TrEMBL record:
Pfam families: SBP_bac_1 (PF01547). Transmembrane segments: none annotated. The lineage of its organism: Bacteria, Bacillati, Actinomycetota, Actinomycetes, Micrococcales. Residues 1-25 form the signal peptide. It comes from Agromyces mediolanus (Corynebacterium mediolanum). Coiled coil: none annotated. This is Sugar ABC transporter substrate-binding protein. PANTHER family: ARABINOSE-BINDING PROTEIN-RELATED, POLYGALACTURONAN_RHAMNOGALACTURONAN-BINDING PROTEIN YTCQ.
């Protein structure tokens, strides 16, 4: 579906129609200094390379916050016209920056950018044929499993969700202390990726009207599937990232993890003693042979409408997201899987992640899987509200044993109510 700017921008009458919104160009005489907000570790080293090669366009890096908190700070700063020239933003949050007049239309500076990126990634920054940032990384959902545990118990690597359930049952029956996975009540981006694979489309827009469909059949199917496995006791209902989960990932309690392709960068801190024991493969499919997967994570870099030097800012983010030099540094320093097509062919990706030396084809495998990745046609302008309802609802449902499908209904209600409160036209 073609994503529309009018639906994104129609919420606030005081804003100019976003189809005509772009950064204010100011002629540059001499040296220009651009401020960039990003939470990526290792960014300073990358910015230093740019600054050494571009004495007339210097980038000053700040790390005020990460994720949703950074978006809040950007919106607050924009009210005073003080947002940074360049900001890192997760894909699901970009529509909120567009709706609030923060993300600038940079189409004139990068007119041919679409050809440089994986289509699924570029779709996250393009609205009504206008470009509002450039994709940095791309994180298809994949399945990691402990090869040694699978071999020990003679388990088959699942290629369908039916097989995943069968493998989870077989593992737990063979050793009741082991589980194939867990359902995380604190990771709505993870769950939304699973629903994307199943065909869900939580938000869509036509003209100035939105449709919200969080409790659609595809999402209910995914929720019911996981609740069934939790009910059987063959997967857990514990959240990711806790000290207990880290311990169990490391000691072999868990034999699998459904995660984004970025996971090797995190594994060292999660399960340091099981390096070289994990293997990555494609996500199990709902229908045998289907290569569709969802996305968990991924970010863009955008130029703000507060920037007095949008052309220079666009030049930097073009270098940052498309040059072999910058992408190789990002692979090394940040452990990204690049959204840029040339970045996916870098020599740096011919060496597997340090945590997974046993899978030399790791990045080539990710590139192949990424071809089947899909996201929602558009993320809603209040995805953070939706995600909050997920966190509140699923944690309680797991504790109380109430229906996961009811959580989706509440997420639907909370999201629609908030959008209408903000002034969006919603038709369901």
């Amino acid at each position: 579906m073609r994503r529309t700017l009018t639906a994104i921008g129609a919420s606030v009458a005081a804003l100019a129609l976003l189809a005509g919104c772009s950064a204010g160009e100011q002629p540059s005489d001499g040296k220009v200094t651009l401020e960039m907000w990003s939470w990526d570790p290792g960014m300073a080293d990358i910015v230093d390379v740019w600054n050494s090669e571009n004495p007339d366009i210097q980038v000053k890096l700040s790390d005020p916050a990460g994720g949703d908190e950074l978006v809040s700070r950007i919106l607050t700063a924009h009210k005073s016209g003080d947002a940074a020239d360049i900001v890192k933003v997760e894909y699901q949050s970009l529509p909120a920056l567009i709706a609030n007049g923060v993300a600038a239309d940079i189409t004139e500076y990068v007119p041919d950018a679409s050809k440089d990126f994986t289509p699924g990634a570029f779709a996250q920054v393009e609205f009504e044929d206008k470009t509002y940032g450039l994709p940095q990384d791309f994180a298809p959902l994949v399945f990691f499993y402990r090869q040694d545990i699978f071999e020990q118990y003679g388990l088959k690597v699942p290629t369908t969700w039916d097989e995943y359930a069968a493998t989870a049952r077989a593992l737990h029956a063979a050793d009741p202390s082991k589980y194939l996975g867990t359902f995380s009540s604190t990771d709505p981006g993870w769950f939304s990726g699973l629903t994307q694979q199943a065909g869900a489309n939580w938000w869509s827009a036509s003209g100035d009207t939105w449709t919200v469909d969080i409790d659609d059949d595809a999402s209910v199917k995914v929720a019911d599937y996981w609740q069934g496995l939790i009910g059987e006791g063959v997967v857990k209902g514990d959240p990711f990232w806790s000290p207990q989960w880290n311990k169990e990932m490391d000691d072999g309690t868990y034999a699998g993890w459904i995660s984004g392709a970025w996971a090797p960068a995190q594994f060292g801190g999660i399960a340091p003693n099981s390096a070289g024991k994990w293997v990555m493969t494609s996500l199990p499919a709902w229908t045998a042979g289907d290569t569709t997967t969802g996305i968990w994570g991924g970010s863009a870099t955008a130029v703000t409408t507060d920037s007095k030097h949008p052309a220079e800012a666009a030049k930097f983010i073009d270098w940052f997201n498309t040059s072999d030099e910058a992408l190789a540094l990002q692979v090394e320093k940040i452990n990204i899987f690049p959204a840029a097509l040339n970045g996916q062919k870098l020599d740096a990706l011919k060496t597997p992640p340090a945590y997974m030396p046993n899978q030399p084809s790791y990045y080539a495998d990710v590139a192949a899987i990424a071809e089947g990745a899909r996201s929602f046609d558009i993320w809603g302008p209040n995805a953070t509200v939706t995600f909050g309802a997920y966190n509140d609802g699923f944690a309680k449902a797991i504790t109380d044993g109430t229906a996961f499908s009811e959580v989706l209904k509440n997420m639907q209600t909370v999201t629609v109510d908030d959008m209408e409160k903000l002034g969006f036209s919603v038709e369901n």
